[in-house]
Amino acid sequence: VKAQVFYKPEVMKLEDRDIPAVSDNEVLIRVKACGICGSDIAYYFGKSPLDTETGLGPLVLGHEFSGDIVEMGTNVERMGMFHASDRVTVNPPLHCNVCEMCTQGYPNLCLNMKPLGTAQNGAFAEYVKAPYTHLVKLPDAVSYEEAAMIEPLACALHGVKLLDAQLGDSVVIFGTGAIGLMMLQAIKARGAGKVAVCGVLDYPLETARHLGADYIFNTMDNASPYYTNDIKKEIISLTGGRMADKSIVPVGAVSAMRSAVEVTGFNANIVMFGLPGADDVLEVPVLDTLKAAKTVRFSWLSPQMWPETIRAVHEGKIQLRSLITHHYTLEQLGDALVYLAGPDPKKIKGMVLF
Ligand SMILES: [Zn+2]
Ligand SMILES: [Zn+2]
What predicted TM-score, i.e. pTM, was given to this entire model? Predict the structure, then answer.
């Protein structure tokens, strides 16, 4: 079966491999769709190490996927919870269920995490195996493509849960990638008031406006009609000096994280979500933050989020199709990773279809 195998930065090969053998507690899945995550691009270019011992391959990347069960291990079969041809997606950060964090109810902080696609072979392949404990069945009305977006959406919705946007709250979102646009929809669906979205490209900012953003700001491109060089001043003027109630940062830029603290007011919640570099440091003006009694939180993965995430998609609360801007075949993956790292201003989310 065909698999794209990542070896080391910028070296990925399409190979013919044996079908993975499933153990008693695993199922074999025929992959139907696999999203290309920003982290896949970072791994490909060597900007982020894998979770393998060496930080390198050989490893099949791809952790945002959906497909059909084609084979089950003996325990899975005996339990009767899943059947061949069931449509499923998989929660890929495989936690151990045994360590102190898992047993306290924080599987996202598992001490023995072995994620599919970063530590074990993922889904940029025709077949992938996964333990039945991490499978989630799909409603018929949820497409394979949408299902391949449930992993990032579950993470986005966890960030929004920590943000705790309430009826009428003013919110600033820093970032217009797929995650930012998912968060925007969730924040609006929770009844937030005015929502401002900041980004660096006009096309996704305009997509944000179509998805419900009340204000859009381009903080980089001074040729943009949405350009501002002082986001704090804009928020002061939009809120009459009250500042935002909540802000969230689905990008890894520390400058955006700093702005997120600065654009908020009394009792604000601020949630950091995007992945910064290993050596990045966030400096916060302490006295102002203290005297405004702000809460700064960090969101990691998607503990206990999957059932409500699938319901949100099934019930149409979150629109995912317009976020998928680029489609690829498995053969095209190497080119796709290079392309999506490039300057196309209309890219939001790339998806490999099988
Ligand atoms: Zn991802
Ligand atoms: Zn654990």
Answer: 0.96
